[in-house]
Amino acid sequence: MQVSHFTLALILSFFSFTSNGANFSSFIVSENWVGNASTKPISVSSTIAAATVYTKGALIVRRGSMTIEAGNFDLAFNGLERGIQEESIQLYLDNSVGVFSLALGSHTDDPKEKPVRMQTLYVRLDSIRRQIALLEADRAGYQEELTIMTAHRNFNGGAETGISVDDIRAAGELYRERTTSIKRALVELNYQKGKLNLLINKLNAELTELAPPTPPTTGQVVSRVIAQKAGTYTFELSYLVNDASWTSDYDLYVEGEASRPADLILVANVQQNTGMAWEDVDLTLSTGNPNRKLAPTKLIPRYIGHSPAASVNANSGKTKNIQGAYDPAPRYIQGVVRDDLGEPLVGVTVLIYGSKIGTTTDMDGRYIIENKMNTATPSLQLSYVGYESYTCVVHSGSVDFYFGEPSMVLEEVVVVGYGSNKDRSEDSYTPPPPAPITFGTEQATITTRTYHVDAPFSAESGTPTNAVRLVAHTLPLDLRYTAAPKVEPVAYLEAMLTGWDELNLVSGTLRLHLDGRYIGKSLFNAAQESDTLLVPLGPDDRIVLQRRPLKQKTDRRPIRSRVDYDLGYEITVRNTLSRTIKLHLEDQVPVSQRDEVKVDIIDRSGDAKFNVDTGSLVWQLSLKPATTELIRVGYTVSAPKSVAVLFE
Predict the structure, then answer these.
(1) Where are the chain's structural domains?
(2) pTM of whole model > 0.70?
(3) How many Cβ atoms from other residues are within 10 Å of residue 590's Cβ?
(4) What stretches in the chain show pLDDT beneath 50?
(5) In terms of Cα–Cα distance, which of 596, 603, 549 is closest to 571?
(6) Which fold has domain 543-640?
């Protein structure tokens, strides 16, 4: 085949280029530059000086200096992170140096020179392989001779004379002797070949140990610059990478025995898997996300009466969900659960499907759940008494649910709370240690909030999360107890915090510290509408509660088709503490779902707030030290004889 002079020259130039240690991707990039494309780019070193970490992604800032002559040059910034967003690359130089173009590529360092011992081993391996080739040649010759002898071992004499017995005996002895000799030679050849192969394996193992590591492939930015004069110039190179993020946690410090504000400390959990170590970098954390879209979604007209597909929100009585901005792997999922009339549902169980990670909706129907499984597009499973269970795939951090019509009539809903009892000492009060020191400075922008870490930050790539205490906020605090003795005769202490909604916080895990002791954690929902943040602090057995049903009276006169019931209960609350407490006490009366069933309250103690739709009764009590208060509720139920009534 004839090869043209042009093709041959191109091939030779390519091999000459690769022999200088450059890679093919750099060759392709150089073809795009103006000027002399054959000039090898000048390698420029840099160090990571600063990083701004977003909720997803990070802006890396590298700084350094270089000495160049006047003219046009290709500069190669090697040893960078992989996965750089090309459109985000920025290079800042002196005003006398112009940046003509920028391009993203990859780079592999020249391999290290092989040790002299490796060269010796390669020579020895070549000699051994030559010996094995000679043994194979001898083996093939013996095999050929054996094949020929086997093919001619049948002796046939002429038709008249035949073969004598002596001739047959002599031929047999010759065949036996030669066959034995050949097979012995083959056995020896195989033995020698086996020994040589073992030696080859040993030498190859030694070569593997001596071989220098393969240089890693790193990111590369190549820039064509135009310098008006020679000199030493400083530069700053910045770009976005995806493999870094931070999430927020909080530490809440509360003193239960002292009337003082609470300390809320924001803790940043910084993760970086960029492939590069951060050593003493100037770190800033931002609540923004540069990968999110910048423009709002356009509203699409909805036409009615022209197409069966116009009824996009119809769900035929089934549960539906409305999801917010696209996020395939949200750390926190939050929203509101409502019924088919748009009213919030309280006590709906929300689980991450296939796990025991879950929560229940609060009094406003809100929930927040942490995606601890770190799975992309997780599934949520919702269950509520009287409704069919519902499961959906989630691709957003904000999901609202609307339950369809109930699958059965609800007679009664019981919400069970869980907690662990902790002994509390009655000894004299000792102030707990102060809250930890923080290392951040907070600054608000128009759309985001940033936190500058005041101390140099270091983190190896791929290491576990690095926690940094950023800022502390002092929040007004009020303590109260909450109890629902029908469900559980235990009073739970709650911290009521105000002023938190002015801090522009984000949702996260809330670690709770009461009187200097860590007591557990909760989830902080920054999207709730209430300006008072209720934080559970655990049960307190020093508040004694007891609930007893009153004696039931029933009117079953034969001449009537209805039955009247006199029902009720008593709640006793005793405060054994040496200070006055506030108690949020909840109970209920049944709610009728049929016109023929009537429920009327005839007696209730105190100033209870009554919700006619849910039947809930709420008392806001103030109990002085060592006092007892009695709450009494009486009500009547009038129903047809065919309707069963649940008693206290």
Answers:
(1) 5-111+220-241, 116-156+165-210, 244-291+418-539, 318-402, 543-640
(2) no
(3) 17
(4) 1-38, 306-316, 408-427
(5) 549
(6) Immunoglobulin-like (2.60.40)
